[in-house]
Amino acid sequence: MTDTFKIVEKIRAAEEAFLDQRNSISADFADDYPMIQRAVYNENFVAVGGSENRNGWRVRLRYIFQILRYELFDRQRAKMTIHQTVFLTPSTGRRFKGATGWYDATVEAIANDDVSGNSFCYEVPAFGTYRDRKARPSFYLGLPEVFYRGMSKFFVARRPVPNALLQDVARFKTLVEAQGLTARTLEVGAFARAYRYLHDRSDVFETQLRKMQCKVVVTYPWYGQINMAMMLAANRLGLRTIDCQHGVQGPLHAAYSRWPAFCLDSLLFPQQFFVWTEGDKEWLDTWIGPNRVAEVTGIPWHNVSQEKIGENAQQQAYERALAAHDRNGVILVSLQPNRPEFIVWLSEILMQPEAKNYTWVVRNHPGNQNQLGALSELLDPFEMVLPVDVSSNAPLIGQLRSCDLHITDYSSVVTEASLVGMNSLMLTQREDLYAQERRLGFAHSIVSGPAFWADVERLKAPKQQ
């Protein structure tokens, strides 16, 4: 199943049935429920990952080797000192490399500009690899992580899983399956491994955070398993914990939907949510409860200077490709994971004669690296479409500044486009998505037939906010 809405609705139905059946819920189940829900969601969403087999023994050995090499030889030892703020960020598509080093756009506007040196960045390598050894700023997981991944597996007794938690998980698993979802991740063995992974990693982070004497921990985003381990460690230490919005929120995203009240005191949640717009804040305020706050902070990577973006080799390749096309407008198309129906719709649109009047910039989702080759093969015959690998690797903010219209299914680029005055056409017909952008006149549902091209021509000119 890949329909986000249906998955969320079925999980909510299982939650309600669980509450109806249980007079009481174990404290451990309530505390760990964010991890449990995310495991069920991820299993049913069938997310497509990168091109490597991350479970293979060769990848694991290479991963350990790179950690050892980086920790023992490449990283400046002085970095492990006292820091006021710690960032945890995955390697995502918003990371790009400039002429003078790496820029992680999700933290660049904050961490790189902190000349006081009070900020420190962890990185979770997306494909089991560190960045180039010359990369700056220096992201690392730490030597304790090496010992956790290695020695502890052989010499440390396994953390016991509370019986009451296992009983509640088993009951919840039955109710999830009754909704037509799969729940293999809630089987005893699989859940025990996930439980130990989360809590063991949290112990590692807690040790490191205590040594750093930091006061603030920021994640991009909060709901990954390793991110929740960081949240748990920081919250146990009484630190200020913050989640920075990285993409779509609202009812579409299970991690930012209405969580049941029984789990809202879980230490896996951050204390604060930094969001892009007032609309995002309004949604979070409906469920986060009185002990958490949402604050509008804008989008950090939109503050990356044009000069710095221009240093980026991928941006330069994109600009060269764009300069070779002289048409009536430039249309940015942002894809999402596991939405093959949108790609089918797009290919049908590109076959229509009107499509040749425009230059098309099709941006693959960073979570769908496996489809890049097939996507390029599908779109290469269309001369008005820029090479997909070029469009997908360039910084998004650079494209937002050079395109005239945005088309998507329901990507969060709708919000990013609105903040630079660009209109978006969305294939989804759900009126509850991007309500604020709709009110402001930046988000519009796609109408089929000749009206589609009329809307393209009407909306492609940038609007002034």
Describe the structure.
The structure is a single chain. The protein is α/β, with parallel strands linked by helices. Helices cover 43% and strands 12% of the residues. The protein has 19 helices and 13 strands. It has helices spanning 4-21, 27-45, 57-74, 105-112, 143-149, 152-155, 163-178, 188-212, 225-236, 278-285, 306-310, 313-323, 340-350, 372-379, 388-393, 396-400, 413-418, 435-439, 450-459, and strands at residues 85-90, 95-98, 101-104, 119-124, 216-219, 240-244, 272-275, 293-296, 330-334, 359-363, 405-408, 424-426, 443-445. The protein has a six-stranded parallel beta sheet with strand order 4-1-5-6-7-8, with helices on both faces. The chain has a five-stranded parallel beta sheet with strand order 10-9-11-12-13. It has a two-stranded antiparallel ribbon with strand order 2-3. The longest helix has 25 residues, at 188-212. The protein is globular, with a radius of gyration of 23 Å. Mean pLDDT is 79; it is low at 47-55, 76-80, 91-106, 111-115 and 125-141.
